[in-house]
Amino acid sequence: xxxxxxxxxxxxxxxxxxxxxxxxxxxxxxxxxxxxxxxxxxxxxxxxxxxxxxxxxxxxxxxxxxxxxxxxxxxxxxxxxxxxxxxxxxxxxxxxxxxxxxxxxxxxxxxxxxxxxxxxxxxxxxxxxxxxxxxxxxxxxxxxxxxxxxxxxxxxxxxxxxxxxxxxxxxxxxxxxxxxxxxxxxxxxxxxxxxxxxx
Length: 199
Description:
single chain; mainly alpha; Four Helix Bundle (Hemerythrin (Met), subunit A); elongated; Hemerythrin-like domain-containing protein; Hemerythrin-like
């Protein structure tokens, strides 16, 4: 299975689930930079193809959330809460899961603002920037916490058998997604948006 990281396609079959999640974070961070650049264009009254924001929403909902957060929530976080007690429960239930939901809210608000703009409400541009940048700032902090706290806590404290089970389930999850061309579709979309916004 191939995976892209900063335009380089690499083999990931030998990587563990947490390494793959960290690589996905790098792709999400790339999209966050795309979002920021689009918001700057709106702010500066430069030409913007607002349909691209719908592509961003699609990427966030189906790659960052359904694919990436889906693995975290169904494969990693639930095992952390089951096996590692109240500290893990607080970190996950009152931290990571709350932030996942907040990210979904920002995307809903962005979609609503885009529809208002389409109906002629020019003031909705402010809401587009606010919702999009709210998501950018949330996810940057969220990714930093996961990479440097949550994942390390899991790797250092979960039983080896549990980590192996997560790796096996993650590999099956990835293969199923690969069969539906999820990774390919959204990483190509990411590269295309990067090229467009960097012109």
